[in-house]
Every structure is written in structure tokens, then in C-alpha cells.
Amino acid sequence: MNDELFSIFDTVKDAIIYLEGTKIKNSNVQAKKWGFKIDNDLLNIFTYEDIDSLVKNILKNKEYSIEQNIYFLSGSSKFCRINYNPKQNILLIEDRTEIQLLNKVKSDFISSLSHELRTPLSIAKGNTHILNDFLEEDKFKAYVSKISNSIDKIEKIISQLTMLSMAQLGNYVIKPEILDPNMLLQEVINDLNGKIKNKNVEVNIQCNAEYLNGDKFILYTILRNLISNAVKYSYENSEIKVIIDENQLIIKDNGIGIREEEKNRIFERFFRGNESVKYAKGSGLGLSVVKYFCEIANYRINFESKWMIGSEFIVKLKQI
Ligand code: ADP
Fold first, then answer.
1. For 111-157, what is each residue's pLDDT tens digit?
2. For residue 193, how far is its CA from the centre of ligand 1 (angstroms)?
3. How far is the CA of 266 from the centre of ligand 1 (A)?
4. pLDDT at position 86
């Protein structure tokens, strides 16, 4: 690539480096500022934990992408996204130091906020129980029960928000393990037992997989949120089907369904369907948590739904 053509990249804020092997044949203004000068070798300019893989991929003409702290031999460091494109022999380095710092501030803020809120909330909840024991008049007991329900709701919102921010900011580290799907489902069903009984719905489970390979907390949260929605939005005395295969999870209900015009909004944070608000309690966070967990675990989620007939959510665990 000649100098004139390459100068197009001078306005770009990322470093763009044209390579021959690990030798720099051309670089834009930003790359030059960081020390990537023509005819130098990459390895004499910067280093990072995985630099061996970068070199291997360059020499084998293979695509490569990573986010890492990189160290310039001149003494500074940055948090960068590095991409190598073998077709054009271009190395692109994007400075993400500020974004990373901002994400850390956000994540620290949410985790300290939820930590600070949990203690006063559990004190308030404890006191509603004490108060309930002392009160005799049903009228007053009903007020206390309302306070207690509201506290439960705040606690749920906080825990969903914490999960969401963890997933969104990439702070969740996946721990894959071999899981017994029957045991996992049993835990979810036990957790939702009260809701299931109140609605008098029948949850039919068909487990075709001997084991699941995945992160327990992620699979549990996905199943819990989807089955909880199926119960919440089911008609009384109806049937819910949960099918677990090695490659997919299916949760099918015979409930109120999702209106056509709301279908593209259900994964939005805090979105609640018009009718759903009247039909069941909720925070509008459940599906966004599911969506983000699917993203970080590399699962795909789809759904089909007919208004007043029912919905089916499918999570593809492996890309076939
Ligand atoms: P919440 O259930 O707390 O409202 P979610 O994020 O879990 O929040 O879901 C968002 C919206 O998607 C719901 O308000 C509802 O309108 C719709 N929805 C989700 N699951 C179902 C379902 N199984 N049947 C009908 N509507 C659903």
C-alpha cells in the first residue's frame, strides 16, 4: 500500500499498521505517535502477555483479536483491542483505556450501591416480620404485608440489576462444568414452587440430555427467568412444557402471548408489555438478564409467540 493511499488513515484515532511479517511497512499518524515507525520490528516496540500468539498468527496468516493491557518498551501502557487482518496484513490497535476505566467505575458503583442497599433492606424486612407478630388487627397486618412485598420487589430489582451490570460489563467469568439437567431443573422448579401452585399450572418436563456442559449460574438464571415468565403469563390451570436437549432449552407456555407490536421490545431493560403489567408483577429486567447471559455464553435465544395463545422460547446452546 503506497504512502498516499495510507495517509487516508491519518485521521483515524486508532493505530493502523501495515506489516510484512512482523516488520512495519507503513503506519498512520496515531501509530507513529505510539512508536510504530516504518522499518521497525513490532517486537521492539511493544509487548503483552499473549504477544507470542500474535506473532504466530501473523506468520501463519491467520486472523487474530484480543483485548489486553499492552506495554510500550518506551515505558507507557494502555488497555487496547488488537486486531490482525491477514488479508490486508493490517494490525489495528484501538485504545480502550478510557472505556475500560469507565466500565470499572460503573461496575464498582453498581456493586457498592447494591451492597449498601442490601443491609438496610434486610433490617427493614426483619422489622416487618417482628411488627407482624405484634399486630392483631388484620387491617394493619395487610399494610405490613404490602411493605414487605415492596421490599421483596426492591431486592429482586437489585439482584437483577447486579447480574445485568456484571454481564454487560464483561465482569462475569464463565466457569463451565458438567451439570445434571434434572437436578438443575429441580432446583429451578423448587424455587418457583409457590408461583406454580398459585397459578395451578402443570409444568411438564422432558429431559433428553444426560448432562449439560455449561456455567451453572448462567444456565440456572436463564431457565429460572424463562420458566418464571412462562408461569407468570400462563392462563390458570394450563400446561407449560420444558424440554432440555443437549443442544437446546425450550420453554413453551399456553398463556397470554406477546402482541406483535411488542415483540421487538421484550429484551429491553425495564420494558413490560402493556397487558403484562395488569396480568403479573415484574420489573421488566428478566429477559434482558437472559439476553446478556446468552451473549456471554455464546448461546442464541429466539422466541415465537401468538397473542392470547402462548409463547415458546428456545435457547440454542451450541451453534450447529
Ligand atoms: P417482566 O416479566 O418482569 O415484565 P421480562 O423482562 O421478563 O420482564 O419480560 C419483558 C416482557 O416480555 C414482559 O413484560 C412480557 O410483556 C413479555 N414476556 C416475556 N415472557 C413472556 C411470556 N412467556 N408470555 C408472554 N409475555 C412474555
1. 788 888 888 999 999 999 999 888 888 889 999 999 998 998 898 88
2. 19
3. 6
4. 95
pLDDT at 37: 94
Quote the pLDDT of residue 153: 86
Q: Whose CA is nearest to atom 4 of ligand 1?
A: 284
Residues 6+ apart with CB under 8 A from 18: 1, 6, 24, 25, 26, 27, 88, 89, 90
Third-level CATH fold of 176-316: Heat Shock Protein 90 (3.30.565)
Return d(Cα 178, Cα 141) in angstroms, integer: 46
- In the reported structure, the alpha carbon of residue 145 is separated from the centroid of ligand 1 by a whole-number distance in angstroms of 25
Distance, in Å, from the CA atom of 188 to the CA atom of 201, rounded to the nearest integer, reads: 15
Give the number of the atom of ligand 1 that is nearest the alpha carbon of residue 289: 6
Q: Domain residues of the chain, as ranges?
A: 3-95, 99-168, 176-316
Q: From the CA of 96, how far away is ligand 1's center (Å)?
A: 35
Does the model's pTM come out above 0.70?
Answer: no
Would you state the pLDDT for residue 219? Answer: 96
Collect the ranges in the chain with pLDDT lower than 50. none
Ligand 1 in reach of 228 Cβ (< 6 A):
no
Q: Which atom of ligand 1 is nearest to the CA of 285?
A: 6
Look at residue 66 in the predicted model and tell me its pLDDT.
Answer: 92
3-95: in CATH 3.60.21.10: no
For residue 202, what are the contacts with CB-CB under 8 A and spacing of at least 6? 238, 239, 240
